[in-house]
Amino acid sequence: MAFCFDIKRSLRFTVLIPALILISALYSYAFQGKVVGVSDGDTITVMHNGTGEKIRLYGIDTPEKRQDFGTKAKKFTSDMVYGKKVTVESVTTDRYGRTVGLVYIGGKCLKRQLVAKGFVFIYKHNEATIT
Fold it and tell me: Which domains does the chain have, with CATH numbers?
């Protein structure tokens, strides 16, 4: 009887572990692509599966074009990533259907670079999650 119990347990783990890995991959995926557009300091377009995908940086907001430093924030983002290959780690999708995520260039987090230069407003509910 104990032998049958061990087989059942090992079968459960054989099914459970791959299922957990699959679920975590579905909720948090990453891809690489070339940046083909910069809308403003916190929104870029990255080529993904043959089409441009709008990416909104997770947890921050940069000034709009007509606000103080809006043009400088966009230029900084453009200088950092435009025409370059980046890695995008998807976190969620916003109400406009854009991917919201973290963007990395050469091992550096774009969000951190914008924060370090003082170009961002940090959402209060995300202050502890600057990555």
Answer: 29-129 (2.40.50.90)
